Amino acid sequence: MRTMLKFVTCIAIGFSFLQAAQADANYPEKPIRIVVPSTPGGGFDVVSRILGQYLSEVLKQNIIIENRTGAGTLVGSQVAAKAQPDGYTLLAGGLSNIIWNMHLYSAPGYDGLSDFVPVGLAYTVPYVAVVRKDFPANSLKEFIDLARAQPDKFNMAHLGSGTGAHIMGTYFMKQTGIKLTDIPYKGSQLAYPDLIAGRADVIFDTAPSARPHVQANNMKALAIVSPRRSNIFPNVPTSAEAGVPGWEIESWVGLFAPAKTPAPVLEKLRSALSQVLTNRELRQKFEASAGEVFTLSPKETEAFIQSEGRKWAAILKDAGVKPQ
Hints:
By secondary structure, the chain is α/β, with parallel strands linked by helices. 45% of the residues lie in helices and 20% in strands. It contains eleven helices and ten strands. Strand 5, helix 6 and strand 6 form a beta-alpha-beta unit. The longest helix has 25 residues. The N and C termini lie far apart (58 Å).
């Protein structure tokens, strides 16, 4: 009887492995969702929708963009971390939710480095410092001088604790020694109307998010927080050119899968992503949104993300940012 039970058990296990292998080989058999942990219109959302369009063509499946907002980028990232590791739920991941949240929250509900595996990076984009159009400063130096002369008078809009806009503002205050009163919003769609109306003074946001407001002359761009100028803001100086050397960052966005996603599924996703990133139309869309394609091999990607983790742990500690 024991021998028979062992035999039946082995057959069952073998059949399960066979089913799993067959499922991996046939992947994808249904739509894939990309969880975007921010509101529509932001950097994560723009990049995900462009990637989704071209990935659906390569993978021959619909790509569903699911915006899951709340607590900065925590809620959406938590949803993706708890999803089945079968390749049908991916996360739009970047600095804020893969790296920064681990140092901003004492209990973020997931670990960006261990609960996810990178499918691949895809996009890099600079941040830009913008102020309301009637702000009494036309350069970053003038802004800093005003803020130093009138402490606590000016406020900074951001998109929630742990978002890029929040971290960049905190980093800026540390670098310049000024103090701004922070005002959190639940997404850029709520922040910019207050900036335009004069209820907020400055925001440090990604170039794609700030672009339409600057081009409509509702906001003034003071500096690109990058080592080089932006192709959509060619006349806006870099942070170093504007007098704040060392205050530089280029944000990145990629696709991440829950840890333990089967290797064959990851390989298919990585191959598809690599293929779409060579698409000329996609590259043009990325450039039109103020960013550019960012490609690394899987090994280089892993090393880069680990490096970002170490770098930002030191920067946030130096800036006095403590987990909440």
